[in-house]
Amino acid sequence: MNYQELSHQINSKSSYLCVGLDTDINKIPQQLLKEKDPIFEFNKQIIDATIDYAVAYKPNIAFYEALGIKGWESLQKTIEYLPKDVFTIADAKRGDIGNTSKMYAKAFFEQMNFDSITVAPYMGSDSVEPFLEFEDKWVILLALTSNEGGKDFQFEELKSGETLYQKVLDVSQKWGTKENLMYVVGATRSKEFQEIRKSVPDHFLLVPGVGAQGGDLEELSKYGLNENGGLLVNSSRGIIYGSSDTNFADVAGAKAKAIQEEMKGYLERVC
Amino acid sequence: MNYQELSHQINSKSSYLCVGLDTDINKIPQQLLKEKDPIFEFNKQIIDATIDYAVAYKPNIAFYEALGIKGWESLQKTIEYLPKDVFTIADAKRGDIGNTSKMYAKAFFEQMNFDSITVAPYMGSDSVEPFLEFEDKWVILLALTSNEGGKDFQFEELKSGETLYQKVLDVSQKWGTKENLMYVVGATRSKEFQEIRKSVPDHFLLVPGVGAQGGDLEELSKYGLNENGGLLVNSSRGIIYGSSDTNFADVAGAKAKAIQEEMKGYLERVC
Fold first, then answer.
1. What angle do CA A25, A92, A7 make, to 5 degrees?
2. Is Lyase tagged as a keyword (chains A, B) (predicted)?
3. Which domains does chain B have, with CATH numbers?
4. How many CB pairs lie under 8 A apart between chains A and B?
């Protein structure tokens, strides 16, 4: 999916919601465990219930990898089930030397046909660029993450005066464009949000922190939205684990709808 | 495998060689393609031919992931085939928020029973610590990588005067010990090697760069070895793709033997 198509989806659904499919076999409703593929069955029902309110879906790959080959099968079925007009994110946080990153790109862009993948910046340009060579595919580079450990290095002040995450934003803009490069920006730090928007006014930002990680949707929408949307806001646990009962999909749908309605209001302010 | 057992292996084989199983379906000898599982067949023959000269094996996970479910099956068979007295490294460069890193740890330490996994430091403490909670399992943290892009951020000078990779070494020593934490140190920079040894005198260092990435074994052994070994030096392409003919395993064995003999000499100098 390209930039224009993604902006169009945001416009037409009045939503920039990404549903995080962090599907944990120990957390899904008991009655699904009798299904042949409980993980896929759960995802399928969540997707059906939320598809009108979400523009993107983000399986966190760790949850599938932890189940071995069965997990990869569930992931493959999930990505095949998702309609072509939603943006798909492999939250994999990969990154390695060039020939290896190329292998990861093949795995996620060709084997599984994801639109995008999250990538860690520590190994620099040649670890990221192989992902950028695929047409209409995206890198979502970690810039500022919302976890506690994010403070260990990302806020380090460099001799030049900027912080490490600012340096990541600056340097990486030479590797890709707003058409194939997004950034992960942790929502719990809305003070930094304005400043980040100044560095990357046009790039899409993926905000992973609304819900369990405690972001403030109004605040980050105020600073993060631009005229093309420019934001994808993820909620995982807050949507998919709203209920552990037979009505889990309905509850997920209602939660997604509530977020979408809030987003609609914020979108109207900028468009 | 614990610290003492690894040191013992190094001593008894007079080797600190790690064989990188970056097994690429497009590079393995043609005649293997008629096998049911060419990747595993290649690995099996490489392992048989090199097992007397190597103390560790490091499959780069990307090469398996790129093949989808079949690749994961080949990886699983490979890890099961490796004898218990070699150290196994999942070169996966994972790292995510706490509950997600725990999932990755389960995938590699429980599902696949690897001894260790490479982890990227950008997301800080809570992305690394879940891996350190498994007994006799190891994190191998990226500190200084040997690729060109490694220069983009790792050498950034911080306000404190140290470089980012030094900061990673300093901070991460609070997370683990020499018994469960190693570092990736790119061999192409032996000037930095001495300095790194001062920061982490007792930790094992994994050097990924001998062979195709151009490290100098004598130089890095001089600065990197300590009385417990303290080094694992990886060679991937230089060993496994020595010949594309039917004799590929013999050639790999001979190449591994030559490196081991050189290593034996360097070990005698320090022990």
1. 105
2. yes
3. 3-270 (3.20.20.70)
4. 184
Q: How many residues does chain A have?
A: 271
Is residue B93 among the annotated active site residues?
yes
Q: Which helix (H) or strand (E) holds A181?
A: strand A181-185
DSSP B156: P
- pLDDT at A271 (0 to 100): 65
Strand A56-59 to A87-94 pairing: parallel
**Per-residue pLDDT tens digits for A148-204:** 999 999 999 999 999 999 999 999 999 999 999 999 998 666 778 889 999 999 999
How open is the CA angle A93-A96-A97, to the nearest 5 degrees?
A: 160
More confident residue, A42 or A212: A42
Which residues on chain B are in Cβ contact (under 8 Å) with A126?
Answer: 147-149
Options A93, A178, A222, A264, the catalytic residue: A93
**Local structure of residue A178 (DSSP, 8 states):** T
B166-186, pLDDT tens digit by residue? 999 999 999 999 999 999 998
At B182-215, the pLDDT tens digits run 999 986 667 788 899 999 999 999 998 676 555 5
Nearest-by-Cβ selection for A95 from B67, B93, B112: B93
The yes/no answer to whether this complex scores an ipTM above 0.90 is yes
Q: Which of B209, B162, B200, B155 is nearest to B181 (CA)?
A: B200
Residues 169-228 of B with CB under 8 A from A: 171, 213
Residues of A in contact with B152 (CB under 8 A): 121, 124-125, 171
